[in-house]
Amino acid sequence: MEDPESAGTAPAPGLSSLLPPREFLRSRKGQLLLAESVLSFIIFICYIASLAASFMMAPLLEFLLALFLFFAYASRLNEKFKGVHWPLADFLRCVTAAIIYFAISIAAVSKYSDGASKAAGVFGFAATIVFAIDFYITFNHLVTFLKQGSSDSPEGHKTE
């Protein structure tokens, strides 16, 4: 019986096929989505360990959404599925996440006195800043896209 590796066939890809490409990890969007995922997971863990456990659902949902978008952009699903307007969905996710994190961070820091709630609040303020940076950058891309779309309209060509 012949060994499959010596037969000239490449070994089946393992877990390395699930890792995102290195160029995406070095991009600004990849780093922002990775930071959002990590911060959301840390905040989720802090809220589980705190007296403010009622706030744990928001970081969990934001963690899952950021993780989904991280792998969607890394595997280029945004180029394959044109029916979804990806920049708009990402913009709305970032705006709502920044607002929600800011609100629950203020509540966690001011209302609860345990250390885990304070830590969740501090990480929540950091996540608010990261999400605000992401929605600012996404908003600029969205405006550029809309300006390109309006210049291609028939009204823009009537003056020529």
TrEMBL record:
Pfam families: MARVEL. It comes from Emberiza fucata. This is CKLF3 protein. The keyword Nucleotide-binding does not apply. Its main location: membrane. GO terms for cellular component: membrane. Keywords: Membrane, Transmembrane, Transmembrane helix. It comes from the Eukaryota.
